[in-house]
Amino acid sequence: MIPINSYTDCNVCHRRHFLRRATAGTATLFTVPGALAEALQRTPTDVEGPFYPDKLPLDTDNDLLLINDKLTPAVGAVTYLGGVVMDTKGNPLRNALVEIWQVDNQGIYLHSKAPDQDKRDHNFQSYGRFLTDSKGRYHFRTIRPPAYPGRTPHIHYAVTYHGKRILTTQLYVAGEKQNAKDFLYRRIGGGNPELQKLVTIPFKPLATSKLGELTARMDLVVGLTPADPGHPEG
Question: Domain 11-221, what fold?
Answer without folding.
Answer: Protocatechuate 3,4-Dioxygenase, subunit A (2.60.130)
